[in-house]
Design a protein that fits this description.
With 170 residues, this protein is α+β, with helices and mostly antiparallel strands. 31% of the residues lie in helices and 24% in strands. The N and C termini lie far apart (43 Å).
């Protein structure tokens, strides 16, 4: 009888811990604008969410997040332009392959196989590698040398005043 009660207490404790840790993740990602602001270190307040796709879930919370935010003014562009981790387009190499595909596949594609992030010609891009093996968090050059991906990337389309944000966790 005592063993049964002890076992029940352990199960209840595990369930409570699971709920607490799940809720902590929900609070951080309460809004798409907030998630993007925190990830990029630049305020996206005033932006309008045009599209949001999030496939994160399961035990390890693997998945992809895509958020498209449009802006009425150039406040975001001005902040990004003076940030040391934003770079002027064009983007090349591994990050271009990941975002736009290689002609055969794309990591960030909708059900029609079209990349979520269009090939932007004029604007800025950002990359932050959250992988534990990363030696330079702002470089994407060695990203294809790993078995998994954990990163945030963004492309700002200066012509249309639109920000495309992607987050991948595998």
């Amino acid at each position: 009888m005592k063993r049964k009660r002890a076992f029940e207490k352990i199960i209840i404790g595990i369930m409570l811990l699971t709920m607490v840790f799940s809720c902590c993740g929900c609070v951080k990602k309460a809004t798409a604008v907030g998630l993007v602001s925190v990830a990029l270190g630049i305020s996206t307040e005033g932006g309008i969410i045009e599209e949001k796709v999030d496939t994160h879930g399961g035990f390890h919370n693997d998945g992809m997040t895509f958020i498209k935010i449009s802006f009425e003014d150039k406040a975001f562009a001005k902040q990004a332009a003076v940030s040391e981790h934003w770079n002027a387009l064009p983007m090349t190499g591994n990050l271009a392959t990941i975002l736009w595909g290689d002609g055969y596949t794309s990591f960030f594609a909708n059900e029609k196989g079209e990349p979520y992030v269009p090939e932007v010609k004029e604007g800025l891009y950002y990359f932050y590698d959250r992988h534990k093996e990363s030696t330079d968090k702002y470089s994407y050059e060695d990203i294809m040398d790993r078995y998994s991906f954990n990163f945030d990337a963004a492309v700002y389309d200066a012509e249309n005043n639109v920000l495309y944000f992607v987050q991948l966790d595998t």
